[in-house]
Amino acid sequence: MTKTIGIFLGSLRQGSYSRIIAQELAKLLPAGYVAKFIEIGNLPLYNQDFDDVGPVPDEYIKFRAEVKQLDAALFVTPEYNRSVPAVLKNALDVASRPYGANVWDGKPAAIISVSPGAMGGFGANHHLRQALVFLNMPTLQQPEAYLGHVDQFIDEDKGEVNNQGTKDFLQSIADAFVQLIERY
Ligand code: FNR
């Protein structure tokens, strides 16, 4: 049966490097796997009253159902001020609630952090990793993916990676992630 990997981007920017990297990785998945980009920019900021008092926003209902159906989750994100962009943290929070109904639970995950800077979004990567521990998502350990100087190996006009070494590295991430998913 085909397995679906949900792709969650930490950037809403039109020309996002994170999106280009995610699109490249999606092309490298083996037969039997499909990538599905999941919209998170439309989710209202999480407010516990929505769940405790209601009404629950339609966007939450649809998003939680979408996440529940996934076999795995790939997070491709920039770093904002040494942490996870709010839009992505919000999506994690929304699908983790109401209490006892965390739809991330048990889903294998992988993280790729992206930055034009030298540190490759290390801070975002590890803050995200910390949240995934609490959400009970078995997360790919190796290879780690901190893509620094990302602007240097992306062709922004074509919207694709222009460097074979980077493609090979993304292939190693895709292969290791599929192995992890197969274990669960
Ligand atoms: C950034 N950027 C950034 N980069 C980084 O390496 N560490 C950081 O802490 C930050 N902080 C930060 C905060 C905010 C609010 C913005 C808008 C940007 C730069 C960031 O890496 C760059 O804009 C990327 O291109 C964003 O990723 P996308 O949109 O290309 O996927």
Poorly predicted parts: none
Biggest sheet strand line-up:
2-1-3-4-5
CATH architecture: 3-Layer(aba) Sandwich
In DSSP terms (H or I, runs of 4 or more residues), the helix count works out at 6
Query: Per the principal axes of the C-alpha atoms, what is the gross shape?
Result: globular
What small molecules are bound in this structure? Answer: ligand FNR
Q: Helix content range of the residues, please?
A: 25-40%
Classify the secondary structure makeup into a structural class: alpha/beta
CATH homolog superfamily: Flavodoxin domain
Q: Any idea how many domains?
A: 1
Averaged pLDDT: 98
Major pleated sheet: 5 strands, parallel
Distance between the termini: 14 Å
Q: What oligomeric assembly is this protein in?
A: single chain
Count the beta strands: 7
Per DSSP, what share of the residues sits in E-state strands of 2 or more residues?
A: 15-25%
Helix-strand pattern: EHEHHEHEHEEEH
User: Mind telling me the CATH class?
Assistant: Alpha Beta
Protein name: NADPH-dependent FMN reductase
Domain NADPH-dependent FMN reductase-like: 5-149
Pfam families: FMN_red (PF03358)
GO molecular function: FMN binding; oxidoreductase activity
